[in-house]
Amino acid sequence: MLHTLRVGTERFSSRGRAGHAGKADRWDALAEKAIIVLGYPRSGTTWLAKIFDSHPDVMYRHEPDELTPAHPFLPPDAQIKAWLRQRGLRAAAKRPSFPKSWRSPALDRVRSALGTALTASERVKLTARLSAYIYMPDFVTLQGWRQVRAAIKLVNWDGTLAAESMPATRSVFIVRHPCGQIASVMAGMAAGRFGDLQVDLEAAESLAARRGTSRAGFHALPDPAKFAWSWLAFNEPAVENLGKLRNARILVYEDLCRDPEGISKDLFAFADLDWHPQTSAFLGASTRHDRSAGYFDVFRATELAAERWRQTMDRADQQAVRAVVCGSPLARFWPDFAAPSG
């Protein structure tokens, strides 16, 4: 069940900079109606974002706020527009890629070849620096602009200000069972997947202090409990604030795993996107993957992936997470928090 609380894109020509204002207007329009995918790291955000990207009308940007942090004085609409205009390899060419209604098959092939070449060049020391300055063109035709919708995945925003001030946007905040999310983070840390710790311990300690846990008590906690406080510090305010807005949805990752097509159809209707066979095909491929999935892969047997932590996470670690989260309003999303945990 979906938990809803009431809570370079230029046309190719030799006309120089003519029409620059019109291009700016197009980016304004894209930002105004952007689909914004939000959530804590390792909560299914990339898979959810790629479900939206699989629609042929969608232009997707992947985590541009990791490349360019939010400017403290930019209003949300200007900030989103700035992020949408990022066309580096990471932001504009996150795989898998999909055919687009506003780009010809020939240009799809050109763009794919360019992406492959840039990816390869990043592995070569002499050309890696140069590749960072090459932008991925979107190849939107002049006529195609009428049907483009922007989708953007952000990892450092809860999205509240954008959703409040931009009513035509559609925000989807995905939240994953804390044990599943924390098990995934711990597995990534153990495998050396992260350059930086994917847990905000400062925010975690601050929230724990407000709820009666001393500094010494917090530092004495096992890592899974500290990570659970971080999970709460990020997710609780986002769910509370976004859950009050009509243009935002709160989505539970495990619900999406259990009914990918049904939930996705509901989300597309919410975002004013028609359903398309290309998305059905992507969901089929991404949810029935029978090979070993990579850590950052969106192709996996999702029902199994959603519950794998129950077999792989140490029981004491599970109990440490539960002890922190059980009193949170977010615990209502998962029935096992109300059941005996032994």
Description:
The protein is α/β, with parallel strands linked by helices. 49% of the residues lie in helices and 8% in strands. The protein contains 18 helices and five strands. It has helices at residues 20-32, 45-53, 64-67, 76-84, 89-92, 105-122, 125-131, 160-165, 178-190, 201-210, 215-220, 223-242, 253-258, 260-270, 277-287, 302-307, 309-312, 315-325, and strands at 35-39, 58-62, 149-153, 170-175, 248-252. The protein has a five-stranded parallel β-sheet with strand order 2-3-1-4-5, sandwiched between helices. The radius of gyration is 21 Å and the shape is globular. The chain starts with 19 loop residues before the first helix and ends in a 17-residue tail after the last helix. Residues 1-19 have low confidence and may be disordered.
Task: Give a brief rundown of this model.
With 342 residues, the protein is of the alpha/beta class.
Proportion of beta-strand residues: 5-15%
Q: Shape, please?
A: globular
Rg, alpha carbons: 21 Å
User: Mind summarizing the main beta sheet?
Assistant: 5 strands, parallel
Pairing-aware structural class of the strands and helices? alpha/beta
SSE run? HEHEHHHHHEHEHHHHEHHHHHH
Average pLDDT rating: 86
- Straight-line N-to-C gap: 26 Å
**What are the segments in which pLDDT stays under 50 over at least 5 consecutive residues?**
1-19
**SS field, number of helical segments:** 18
Give the helix level as a range of percent. Answer: 40-55%
Give the beta-strand count: 5
Identify the strand order in the major beta sheet: 2-3-1-4-5
